């Protein structure tokens, strides 16, 4: 049976068909839907972990117990999980274990544009890279076979275009993998130095065997071409662009196993063409490897290492007649800058911080949009949890500035990696103010649950962490909760905590305006007779507000009646909806 499936949905189907039993992930675009879709299969236990390191350790534990396991994350999440990643390469596995990482070339929803292929090489682990939905399903199944045959976790690399594009997929029934008994093996699984040093030779020997496999495995294949004046080596979504641009004009070596690479196959293919071009997004990973084994090739001199490729870019660089239709660069598209939603609970707090001219060290989440004009209320965003640690460092380096410096972090991000930074403030005592923006959900990646919401990945009741009690238990005497829709309350709280002279936490609590179960007030209306056109209401940057004919105007299809704009109007022009 064939179905039209998104790449991430097909990946989840691959987990199901391969007999995966345990999946633990942290949501991160473009990887999120794999675990969300896997959770629809009752045969797979699925969970959202507090962060990617925990998710990988959970997956390893399940593998150790004898069940096939999975953990998923985006590329920056693999940085968080790098600690267990490098050591699980030494221990190996019991039952099959897949580590899925989804790269985000073009930075559609990420703070950097890193290339995860380097992790496979550095950690000495095999990596597969599908180029469409069908391959996503197949490669996930193949990954478990490789994992168990070579006593190794397998990294499966997705990217935004493969994860979120759709193509036809052949689906089959689930096949339960034979359960592997757990056997105590201290020499294999206890990675203290004396044991680890004896596991390193195993890792090196495994890589030799995997490289031999790479020469023969069918997912590294050659598509024949009519013209051998050019040969192309490529993988992932770049393969699709090459085929759309070139068809069967030039021979193509498509690499489905991106690490380790097949030396002999690469050399043989290179010798069969006059000019060898490597087409790959981001870094010259394949290109540099080819050059390291003596193959003359080019790639980054044509395509660069920034952003995504496309069929038009490839056609242009290869001198092929332009594809039908206009290039994107030729189409004038009006800009649509990102903005916090109408009724976003973070808007009132950011307006207050801007008004008080605070230095705001921010974090990763939809609230990062607090940096965007007109609020412009964020000075730094680095990585998950960095807001709290950086605020502590800022205040220790410049104690005189601490009456203007605050950290802002979301509830999910706080659970991910904010607690250790908060512990550092409590332990090393800086006069730092931490504002936890608690919108009762993981907002940026599409409303996933987290340890503070009280629900699990399926929406069933689960353990719930009380942020106030947690902060007090960590040593904070000053913990207070404010409603970000109440501007006066927010301003008073921020002022008082900045003057307190000791560490403090403000929890800005109001659920995300887009949650289905949140009941909103009626949209506000503007009494044009009272409005003087001063535009004070426009300072909050609400997309429901505009100026028409010199007067404030409310878009009733967007307004949720939060009343923040009403508090800014000195003339009483905003009225409650009827």
Q: What does the model show?
A:
The strands form six sheets. A seven-stranded mixed β-sheet has the order 3-2-4-5-7-6-12, with helices on both faces. Strands 14-15-16-18-17 form a five-stranded parallel β-sheet, sandwiched between helices. A four-stranded mixed β-sheet has the order 9-11-10-13, with helices on both faces. With 578 residues, it is an alpha/beta fold. The model has no long low-confidence stretch (mean pLDDT 95). The chain has 21 helices and 22 strands. Helices cover 36% and strands 17% of the residues. Helix 1 (7-17) crosses helix 2 (32-38), helix 1 (7-17) runs parallel beside helix 7 and helix 16 crosses helix 20.
SSE-based structural type: alpha/beta
Shape: globular
Which stretches of 5+ consecutive residues score pLDDT under 50? none
Tally of strands: 22
Return the average pLDDT rounded to an integer. Answer: 95
Main sheet: strands, sense, barrel = 7 strands, mixed
Strand content: 15-25%
Question: Over all CA atoms, what is the radius of gyration?
Answer: 27 Å
Termini separation comes to 53 Å
Counting H and I runs of at least 4 residues, what is the number of helices? 21
Order of strands across the widest beta sheet?
Answer: 3-2-4-5-7-6-12
As a percent range, the share of helical residues equals: 25-40%
């Amino acid at each position: 049976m064939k179905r039209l499936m998104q790449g991430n949905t097909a990946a989840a189907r691959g987990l199901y068909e391969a007999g995966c039993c345990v999946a633990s992930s942290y949501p991160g675009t473009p990887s999120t839907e794999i675990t969300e879709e896997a959770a629809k299969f009752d045969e797979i236990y699925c969970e959202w972990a507090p962060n990617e390191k925990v998710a990988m350790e959970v997956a390893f534990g399940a593998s150790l117990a004898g069940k096939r396991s999975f953990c998923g994350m985006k590329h920056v999440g693999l940085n968080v999980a790098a600690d267990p990643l490098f050591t699980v390469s030494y221990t190996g596995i019991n039952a099959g274990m897949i580590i899925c990482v989804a790269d985000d070339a073009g930075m559609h929803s990420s703070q950097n544009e890193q290339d995860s292929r380097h992790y496979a090489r550095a950690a000495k682990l095999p990596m597969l890279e599908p180029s469409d939905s069908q391959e996503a399903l197949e490669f996930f199944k193949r990954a478990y076979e490789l994992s168990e045959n070579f006593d190794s976790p397998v990294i499966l690399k997705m990217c935004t275009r493969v994860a979120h594009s759709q193509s036809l997929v052949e689906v089959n029934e689930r096949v339960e993998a034979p359960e592997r008994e757990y056997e105590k093996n201290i020499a294999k699984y206890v990675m203290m130095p004396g044991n680890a040093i004896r596991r390193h030779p195993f890792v090196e020997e495994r890589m030799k065997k995997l490289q031999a496999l790479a020469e023969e495995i069918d997912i590294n294949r050659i598509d024949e071409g009519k013209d051998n004046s050019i040969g192309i080596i490529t993988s992932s979504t770049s393969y699709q662009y090459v085929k759309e641009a070139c068809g069967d004009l030039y021979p193509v070596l498509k690499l489905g196993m991106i690490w380790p690479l097949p030396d002999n196959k690469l050399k043989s293919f290179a010798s069969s063409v006059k000019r060898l071009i490597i087409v790959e997004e981001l870094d010259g990973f394949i290109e540099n490897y080819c050059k390291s084994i003596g193959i003359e090739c080019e790639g980054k001199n044509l395509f660069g290492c920034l952003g995504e490729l496309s069929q038009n870019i490839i056609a242009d660089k290869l001198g092929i007649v332009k594809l039908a239709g206009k290039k994107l660069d030729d189409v004038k598209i009006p800009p649509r800058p990102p903005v916090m939603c109408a009724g976003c609970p973070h808007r009132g707090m950011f307006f207050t911080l801007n008004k008080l001219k605070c230095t705001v060290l921010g974090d990763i989440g939809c609230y990062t949009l607090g940096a965007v004009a007109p609020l412009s209320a964020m000075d730094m965003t680095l990585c998950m949890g960095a807001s709290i640690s950086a605020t502590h460092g800022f205040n220790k380096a410049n104690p005189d500035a601490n009456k203007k410096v605050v950290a802002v972090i979301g509830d999910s991000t706080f659970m991910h990696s904010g607690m250790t930074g908060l512990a550092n403030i409590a332990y090393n005592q800086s006069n730092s103010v931490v504002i936890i923006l608690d919108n009762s959900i993981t907002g940026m990646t599409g409303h996933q649950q987290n340890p503070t919401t009280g629900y699990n990945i399926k929406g069933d009741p689960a353990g719930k962490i009380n942020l106030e009690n947690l902060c007090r238990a960590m040593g904070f005497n000053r913990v207070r909760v404010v409603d970000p829709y109440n501007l006066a309350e927010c301003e008073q709280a921020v002022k008082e905590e900045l003057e307190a002279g000791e560490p403090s936490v403000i929890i800005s609590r109001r659920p995300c305006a887009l949650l289905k179960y949140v009941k909103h007030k009626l949209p506000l209306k503007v009494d044009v007779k009272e409005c003087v056109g001063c535009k004070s209401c426009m300072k909050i940057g609400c997309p429901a507000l505009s100026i028409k004919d010199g007067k404030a105007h409310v878009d009733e299809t967007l307004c949720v009646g939060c009343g923040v704009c009403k508090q800014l109007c000195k003339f009483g022009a905003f009225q409650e909806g009827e």
